Amino acid sequence: MVRIKDIADYVGVSATTVSNVLHGKNQRVSPETRQRIEKAIKDLGYIPNMGALMLAQEKSCIIGVILFAKGIKNEPTMTDPYYGSLVGYLEQYIKERHHYMLMLTVTNVEDIIRQSKAWDLDGLISCNMLPDVLSHLYSLSQIPLVSLDAYMESKPSFINIGTDDFGGGYLMGQYLASMGHRHVLMVSDNDQGVEHHRWLGLQKGLSEAGIPMTGEQHLIVSNLYEERLVQYKKHKNLLKQQTALFFSSDYYAMEACFILRKLGFRIPEDLSVAGFDDLFSSRFITPALTTIRQSIDRKAKLAVDALFSLMDGTGYHKTVLPVELIRRDSVRKL
Fold first, then answer.
1. Which of 153-158's residues contact partners 24+ apart within 8 Å by CB, and which partners?
2. Region for 268 from its dihedrals, namely left if φ exceeds 0, alpha if ψ lies in -120 to 50, beta otherwise
3. Which residues does 332 contact at the CB level (< 8 Å), separation at least 6?
4. Per the CB 3.0–4.6 Å rule, which of 184, 264, 275, 331 could disulfide with 250?
5. Do you find a cis peptide bond into 31, omega within 30 degrees of 0?
């Protein structure tokens, strides 16, 4: 069995220094030494005793990741591959910090508070919570909290990591206009937060090209597949009047490509389609999806870094990640 002393001897440092790294007290160790210790931990196959670590730190070493259900009548959040990818990266980076991830799929703030206390969580990361609900959680929570994609200002023990949603919508508006599209419809399942800013960006990008966009050009669909299917059939004539559709996510865009073909549309000959996220699968559908790329990997890494900064008391600034237009085959030039 590999001991802390064995790692210390292997690296040439004190057992206390190794213990500081294992206990997450990284501010006491130089980055170079920490990297050497972490490499030695892997090389020697050291397995920490989590019970001992928890006792030593008086912490649970557990981070709660919140997937907030929008209501009882709602598709599970994890059906969206964006969240599957995001949670996977979060788990990876939390584990690198010698902590465990507890996924909380909940429908109300009070349940989050109960589970936080029951598991004695060290911190929380919220993935899909609207500002009013998040504000309520912040007012009740007594542990560090990081949110992703919530339009709420940073506060003591709270940080938001976001994406340039407006900029992404703006890039898409400019691109669709440059491709000759004057009849554009945006499709999303709400007009709040992320989706609202993507809509505002799209409006600005198109309006600068002399293409006015009114609220009628923003179609709000259900968050249930069967209901979306009925809505697309109902709005078939509206869809026929468009030359391009911009979806607030790749998931909805790829799903719509399947449905639209069933309704007789050819993509992109009859309708160009674009999304937002650049999911791994978006390049493999036919035609490959034009989209706005955001780095889900980097977003998860920054969220974990921000949370541990709050937990360490070292401070962290609000971050907005840049986006990039990815041109593929699902948008044609008119």
1. 153/318, 154/317, 154/318, 157/310, 158/310
2. alpha
3. 179, 268, 269, 272
4. 275
5. no
Most distant pair of Cα atoms in the chain: their distance: 74
Tell which wins on pLDDT, 246 or 136: 246
| DSSP conformation class of 320 | E
Block residue for tokens 């799209």: 202
For helices 109-118 and 131-140, angle between their N-to-C axes, nearest 10 degrees: 40
pLDDT at 4: 85
Neighbours of 174 (CB within 10 A): 18
Q: Is the pLDDT of residue 270 over 60?
A: yes
Neighbour count for residue 137 (Cβ, 10 Å): 23
Yes or no: say if 63 and 125 are a contact pair by the CB < 8 Å rule. yes
pTM score, whole prediction? 0.82
Q: Please compute Rg for the chain using Cα positions.
A: 23
